[in-house]
Amino acid sequence: MEIIPNVHLIPGIVANPYLIIDSDGLTLIDAGLPGSHKKILRYLADLGYSPKDTKRILITHADFDHVGGLAALKAATDARVYANTTEAAAMAAGRPSRSLRPSNAFGKLFFGIMGHMFKASPVQVDEFLVDGQVLPVLGGLRVLETFGHTPGHLSFFAPSAGILFVGDSIVSEKSGLRGSRGANNWDQAKSDESVRKQAVLGARIVCSGHGPVVMDAAGKFPQG
Q1: Which of 138, 153, 201, 216 is most buried per CB count within 10 Å?
Q2: Residue 220 lies in a domain
Q3: Count of domains in the chain?
Q4: Is 204 exposed, middle or buried (0-12, 13-18, 19+ CB in 10 A)?
Q5: CATH code at position 53
């Protein structure tokens, strides 16, 4: 699904992956669950691209629904993988970057089952990203440290297009945007700070890891 020219949401995958098309090749943001690489590569093929056209895979954080398909994608594309150092260490070990903290027995059971059902294969990150770094993607894609959901969570902002890729630092719901919270949140205070940091960027479009793309995003960020 094309969001704006040369920026696509790849549909039908848990934890939305995004595709950016530039003259020097393709950039993916996040990789979905284990097995999601098949849908991602099929989507590229439908647009007329081969796997080797993919030059970069940017990872927001190391949760299995965002990196599950990464090992297979890296093998198929030979793309370089980019992430924060904390998330990279977790990805190399094939585990999340923080422990989950369910508040009740049902939550413990649910996360336990999910942890056994879905495991991400270990992947080595090629380049470590830091806050303020600008990548040669979409006219200049700025790296944002948006810690909170995980200890090394990243977002990506393209000022020229007014588009912000927020991973799980902000969730898109029918009622609007909300910051990350709950048992899978590493640090609520940092999460709230990351929402405020992104709210002042002036993004017109917000692309989250979960939920629909939000167009005309001004004024829709959580307050406080």
Answers
A1: 153
A2: no
A3: 1
A4: middle
A5: 3.60.15.10
Report how far apart the first and last C-alpha atoms of the chain are (Å, whole number).
Answer: 33
CB–CB of 10/43 below 8 Å?
A: yes
- For the entire predicted model, the pTM comes to 0.93
User: For the residues of 64-116, what is the DSSP string, one character each?
Assistant: HHHHTTHHHHHHHH--EEEE-HHHHHHHHHTS-SS----SSHHHHHHHHHHHH
Q: Is residue 167 part of a domain?
A: yes
In tens digits, the chain (224 residues) has pLDDT values of 999 999 999 999 999 999 999 999 999 999 999 999 999 999 999 999 999 999 999 999 999 999 999 999 999 999 999 999 999 999 999 999 998 764 454 444 444 444 545 578 999 999 999 999 999 999 999 999 999 999 999 999 999 999 999 999 999 988 789 999 988 899 999 999 999 999 999 999 999 999 999 999 988 998 75
Q: Residue 110 falls within a domain, yes or no?
A: no
